[in-house]
Amino acid sequence: MNPNRVLIGRTFNDVPLWKLIIGIPLIYLPAFLVLPFVIIGVNLVRGHLRFMGAKNLKKYKEFVPSKKSFRYSLDTQITMKEKSISIWLRSKIYWFYNCGIYCPYSVALFEYSSYLVKVVENWWCPFHHDKKENYADASIDQSFWHVQPERVKLHKDDLENPIWNDEGTRRN
To answer: Which range marks the domain in which residue 45 is found?
Structure first.
């Protein structure tokens, strides 16, 4: 058993029906409550970056998977046949909505939000910490501190980090 994996598949069949009935709507409640605020936040952060002069930012659609890559259509969508689970969980429409709309678009939105926040972090705070390598997918040309006279005060590894400086030490 891999300690880095979330255990859910091995325990799912032991979950009582009442927990499924309560648990499944808990997927959608946060989305309906949070998504509007995430959309507003994404637009505010994107606006901030634009006001700071950012160019070449990725767009939301770059995070949405291509419909061509979807394995199932409404006609081929798999469903559950168990009688003990509600009718909507056995519906092709439900699974098509869940797998074809809700999941790819909401995951893309959160990925896009994460990307934009990483760009902001790389711009304003180009300082190393033990998770900074995870920000490489939001690399920038130069950070705020690289365009300031105080850049000489940066630690050598921060000064030359390719995540937030594509010029290395050439500008010295």
So the answer is: 9-116
